[in-house]
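User: My collaborator and I are trying to settle a disagreement about how two of our proteins should look. Neither of us wants to argue from intuition anymore, so we agreed to look at predicted structures for both before our next call. Could you fold the first one, then the second, and keep them clearly separated?

Assistant: That sounds like a sensible way to settle it. I'll keep them separate. The first protein:
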Amino acid sequence: MNDAKMGFYDLMTDLITDPTQIVTAEIVVPCADIRVEMPYFQKVLGFRLDKIFPADDPAVAVVSGHGLILRLECDADAAPVTIRLACDNPNKFAQGQTTFKTPAGNCIIAFQHNPPLFKPETQHVFAVRRLVDEAPWVIGRAGMLYRDLVPDRLGGSIIASHIRIPDGGPVPDMVHYHTIGFQLIYCYRGWVRLVYEDQGPEFILNAGDCVIQPPEIRHRVLEASDNVEVVEIGVPADHETTIDHDMELPNDILNPNRKFSGQMFVRHQLKDASWQPWRIAGFEHRDTGIFNGTQGVANVQVARFKGGQPKPTRHSSDILFTFILEGRMTLTGEGQDPCVLSPGDAFVVPPHFTTSYADCSHDLELLEVSLPGRFETLEID
């Protein structure tokens, strides 16, 4: 496996171990007096006592519970620890107190297990990200290289990433899912092999194809071509990725109509596309079916220039993101200097803000993502 794929996941030590020899693992919890700390863990926190020694003057007690094994040890050469307790209702655990300390000064935090997805209010701004400005590529999950396409992420409401894998072959990914409101994967260059829960055998996502990954659908990236590039959109920006160690994909169930938190898996293929007039005159677009698949949460369209001079427009969408797939254009925002855009560039336009597309090349092609899926466009004379 090459260094680009491993990144900071690489092993930064020469130590050779055999993890199969490990039978169990303990966390050392320092305390001054076992006779005070141990009952606290038993009676207040619900742990059970597994071991205690020596019998005449206990200095070590091993307790377990809630998925943890703790070694309470007198005079341990260790700093106080913090233990987080995932609760159905943390306010009912300790009569509204969610942070407190044990007699020995170890910190206990009760927090919400599986909290509802937090969607921050969109902080609207007109912003452009150009590839030539050399925004840094960073190494992310599974060793893939990420480039942020939306500065400040509109207050945390969206993350848009340009992702690439320089060297093709198997991808060191695991079956996982995202706790998210909306997620798009658009294959920009090359191809990637994917597999999804309840969607049948693995398949190849070619350049121009896209999928939406509805909330918490299990999936895995299996393989990629050399220099594959994808555009990934996630709402909200901060969301959890959870590894599913139990599910194997492809699984035995085929249920393409299954809904995940109200959304269906959608796979759009360029080869099946039909083109229709777009919301901006002078363009035509192919619809991806994502509006219907998300029940209107979002819409994803690919538009291409057909000719003429598009008029300036305003829109009413909360989030409107555009990525330049091919060609060139000049983007002018209300009160802003014109900006020449080329492949790999991206921009977001706030609602009720006037923009114009000019000097469009004959091969101009745009990827547009809107949330919500339905909104109005007004031409400005």
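The second protein, kept apart from the first:
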Amino acid sequence: MTLGAPRVSTDNFAPGELVLNMGPQHPSTHGVLRLQVKTDGEIISEIKPFIGYLHRCFEKHCENVTYEQVIPFTDRCDYLASMANNFGYVVAMEELMEIKVPERVEYIRVIMAELQRIASHLLALGTFGLDVGAFTPFLYMFRDRERILDMFEMTCGARLLYNYMWVGGLSHDLPIGFVESAFRFLDYFEPKIEEYNNILTYNKIFIERTADVGVMPADVAISYGVSGPNLRGSGVKWDIRKDEPYSIYDRFDFDVPVGIGEKGNLGDCWDRFNVRLTEMGESIKILRQALTQIPKNGDVHQTIPKKIRPPKGSIYKRTETPRGDLGFYIISDGSPIPNRLKMRSPAFTALSVLDEIGRGWMLSDVIAILGSLDIVLGEIDR
């Protein structure tokens, strides 16, 4: 991947080859992204992503603000899964500072993270359907996502950027009636997954656009560091919530869906889509358990430190966001300001593999392949 827009050299062109720019203003790039596509007719021979259009100096900003002030910046990286980004950062900080949060806080964090996973997947699947020409499922999925955003707004007053999870606790406890609202949503939403299967997953045209397209073999996914649903779509059963449990995920009973090549070759666009759809059902399982087991009492501000000043040292902690393995590497020099903060983006590794799995396909397939990777440019550019 490349920053900027250098002049295209024609030295390595075969007769009949063209270079086309897809973006940066393009309706199907899932952010401000430019793809330089080399084609022979309709067949792709090379895809070169150009990034940086949304670069906002996140990591450098973090070296000039206090640890508390970093949290709103994490919201703005993957702005479609802000709760998950908050979660990853505060878990790392609490491990660095050896803070043990109350049980109620742990349960609320898991509830918010899994609601966010469903909301993020709904947007990913809806826009993916839109990319390949299915408009109606997009509207249905946005309708259901709105119900989750309503619950977030009920809790912290925001619908997109939350600043909800704090080091040592939460900004607000759950409002009265939240648990009942969440159960009502789950009862409403669970049958919708089968509805989505009927109108999109097993739709003949959708299968023809996605099955056997953009196949990512497991060894390619691993070599590029791909994680999350993209890795599991290639048949690799790896989920940090199961394999390296953090918070209280080891208390919940849920499965890790993987691609099986049901409609084509293992690791194709259809498998990646289906893994995300099936994952929403597993999130419902976790939510039902967490909402049932959550302690009735507990102060969500009890363990929030008055001054965040971690001891000298460093920590690397990773969590499972809707897009995969999100890592925070934090170096502390004992002051209230991070000495260094590095974020590992799962969307960056997903975009890195685009050229590898996109070669040999037609121009129209590039949109389907890119949509199946579910990237967010705010997280890639940071």
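Some points you might bring to the call about the second protein. The chain has a mean pLDDT of 89. The chain has one domain: 58-339.
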